[in-house]
Amino acid sequence: MPSNVQGGKAFGLLKEQQRSKFEEINKEYMEDQKYRDEEDLPEKLEGLKKRFSEFDLNDQGDIDMMGLKLMMEKLGVAKTHLQLKKMIAEVTGDGNSNTIDYRDFVKMMLGKRSAVLKLVLVFEDKANGAVSKPSGLPPKRDLSSLP
User: Which backbone phi and psi does 101 adopt, to 5 degrees?
Assistant: First the structure.
């Protein structure tokens, strides 16, 4: 990035670099033989890119401890610092890493491993699609229907 670019322009360039990096990674997955049989792969990758960007709080191209904490809280599954570190280590396969990069995130979400984070995110998607709250007044009951 040119050093004379500041403020909004610098942020715009950073986001554009990030977007193109994500597109390159998505292209790698599209061309990878392991993922050829994955149903709706282009749509899944686009959705993963959006979800990842939502929790990349510092716009550095990775989800750090605070981003993961926010994600878990948003899902209603608050985790301790130690649990978050364990989740990151499980996803990255590296006990020294404090962040999840996009490549690791996609690998986890498309992979066959049952990472805790993947299970939570998949559960959230299913829950969001299947939630149907009853509307209107509750049905009238009489004393004989009570337990």
Answer: -85, 170
Is the Cβ–Cβ distance between 80 and 112 less than 8 Å? Answer: no
pTM: 0.66
Listed as own residue / partner, the contacts of 53-61 with beta carbons closer than 8 Å and 24 or more positions apart are 53/18, 53/22, 59/11, 59/14, 59/15, 59/18, 61/18, 61/21, 61/101, 61/102
pLDDT tens digits for range 122-140: 666 665 655 455 667 777 7
Q: Which domains does the chain possess?
A: 16-123 (1.10.238.10)
In order of 21, 89, 135, 136, the CA distances from 142 in angstroms are: 63, 56, 21, 19
